[in-house]
Amino acid sequence: MADSRPAQDVLPKDSIRLGLTAADKWDAIAQCGALLTEIGAVEPGYPQTMLERERSVSTYIGEGVAIPHGTDAARALVRHTALGVLQFPGGVDWDTGTPVRVCVAIAARGEEHVAVLSALAEVLLDAERAELLRGTTSVDTVHELLGSVRKGAGA
């Protein structure tokens, strides 16, 4: 059955946080989970599944970007598809040799995350846009850069 709620922006400006610091990747993932909880996208148990996912498979995707998300079983804890962008300008050690400067926290119901990941890949494949995402101090710039991601989730 289709969701009767009006379509919503999966990346509202209030889910973009810039200039953050994290002690390590576990702290960064905890911040991602807290943001998804704060914006009402997930049930309180979801952040723990994000840590479980990272313990089994790294969410690092390259270009200084990680995409923390919950386990497949955790989809039942997702209230609505949403993204959070957390920028760590000083970098976070992700055990990859390349520090992570941007985390895109993902909460997706069903298979919606596939469209989100595809749209994010488009941004990261463009070196100029990827660097802007990692270094900007403007929420509006991030919101614009990831416009295709916001549309790509199409709930």
Describe the structure.
The protein starts with 15 loop residues before the first strand and ends with a helix. Helix 1 (25-38) packs antiparallel against helix 2. The chain has a single domain, classed as Mannitol-specific EII, Chain A. It is an alpha/beta fold and 155 residues long. Strands 1-4-5-3-2 form a 5-stranded mixed beta sheet, sandwiched between helices. The chain contains 6 helices and 5 strands, in the order E-H-H-E-E-E-E-H-H-H-H. It has helices at residues 25-38, 46-56, 112-124, 127-135, 139-145, 147-152, and strands at 16-17, 60-62, 65-66, 82-92, 100-107. A hairpin with a 2-residue loop joins strand 2 (60-62) and strand 3 (65-66).
Quantity of strands, as a count: 5
Q: Strand order within the widest sheet?
A: 1-4-5-3-2
Helix-strand topology string = EHHEEEEHHHH
Q: What share of residues is helical?
A: 25-40%
CATH topology: Mannitol-specific EII, Chain A
- The mean pLDDT is 87
What's the tally of helices? Answer: 6
Q: What is the name of the CATH class?
A: Alpha Beta
What's the architecture, going by CATH? 3-Layer(aba) Sandwich
What is the makeup of the main sheet?
5 strands, mixed
Radius of gyration: 14 Å
